[in-house]
Amino acid sequence: MNAAVLAGINQPVLYQTVADPQLGPGEAVVRVAAAALNHRDVWIQLGRYAGLKFPIILGSDGAGVVEAVGSPADEPWLGRAVVINPSLNWGDNRRAQGRDYRILGLPDDGTLAELVKVPVANLCAKPEHLTWESAAALPLAGLTAYRALFTRAYLRTEDRVLITGIGGGVALFALQFAVSEGAQVYVTSSSAEKIARAQTLGASDGVNYREENWAKRLKTAVGGFDLIVDSAGGEGFAELIDLAAPGGRIAFVGATQGNPSGLDLRRVFWKQLDLLGSTMGTADDFASMVQFVQSRHLTPVVDQVFPLAEVERAFQRMHAGEQFGKIVLKITPPDIM
Question: Which residues pair with 15 in a beta bridge?
């Protein structure tokens, strides 16, 4: 089969022919119609991720058709259109992942290939209204946003919500999910164009976080946020503490800007704030997220679509950070699916 292979740190991702995956009991092989990138893939390429191994087929997001199964009991899955849950071996504790937890695409070969092997338990029927490309955009970022909003932060219709760094996959899913739930949503970005596009998706307003006194202006306009979703951390986290309403919740799903240099715990406890760490999610979170997308007829935002043979171009776009939505790779031609 053809696949996108990373041979080492800071190496280009290469389009190569590799061996087909070998099935075991309880596993399925999916012929991938489309796959999508995540920042996780870029961190691996840069060597800024734990548990590195090479060569590796990257990719956590994918959608396609089940081509083979390893157990007779799983044969009803054959020929079905599916999206793949990239959250492997979560464990029995729904509150936190276990020691054996891992994410598809490292250490297991991932979805940037014509075929991918996954546990049958990680298959979920593709929402019928989604194209292959939009279905492939859903798994990792959709799961992360859903768990942060609903499982961890208990999103309510009456909430005033702030989502930072709009344009990336998790932030956009958080926006779409919160708007669909009826919440009033605001966003931040360094791009006026991205803020304007977020408003077309239902955001009430947004501010440029590179402008002076952006947090003060936002607080004056809104008064305070019941729920804030952040993936950056860094020095800007102090402003989020200030922007949170008394009794508010801050759900953070990443730390792309590193750790805050100082965290004023007095302000946290005096305002009765909940700081909620969240990442990925359980099998139940994934199933609920896909059902939410199906029932609300939501469509993931796709930035650009590249053929698998141009995978390094797709990675360069992710590196540039200019995307609005998910970067998708078309893998198996539609006439084959």
Answer: 4
Domains in the chain: ranges and CATH: 2-138+300-330 (3.90.180.10), 143-277 (3.90.180.10)
User: Do residues 234 and 261 make contact, with C-beta atoms less than 8 angstroms apart?
Assistant: no
Give this prediction's pTM: 0.95
Nearest-5° angle of CA 112, CA 116, CA 119?
135
CB 122 within 8 A of CB 85: yes
| Residue 35 · residue 61 · CB < 8 Å | yes
User: pLDDT tens digits for 199-242?
Assistant: 999 999 999 999 989 999 999 989 999 999 998 887 888 899 99
Alpha-carbon gap, residue 179 to 17, rounded angstroms: 43
Q: Determine the pLDDT at residue 337.
A: 55
Beta strand 87-88 with 2-6: parallel, antiparallel or unpaired?
unpaired
Q: β-strand 27-36 against 61-69: which pairing, if any?
A: antiparallel
Q: Give residue 173's identity as a one-letter amino acid code.
A: F
Q: Are 55 and 323 in contact (CB under 8 A)?
A: no
pLDDT at 333: 66
Cβ density class 182-216: b for 16+ within 10 Å, e for less: ebbbbbbbebeebbebbeeeebbebbebeeeebbe
pLDDT in tens, 279-288: 999 999 999 9
- Cα separation, 197 vs 203, whole angstroms: 9
CA 127 centroid distance within chain:
17
CA–chain centroid gap for 305, Å, is 17
- pLDDT over 70 percentage in the chain: 99
Residue type, 277: G
Q: What confidence score (pLDDT) does residue 263 get?
A: 82
> With 60 as the cut, is the pLDDT of residue 335 above it?
no
Looking at residue 294, its amino acid is Q
Of residues 56, 60, 193, the one with CA closest to residue 137: 60
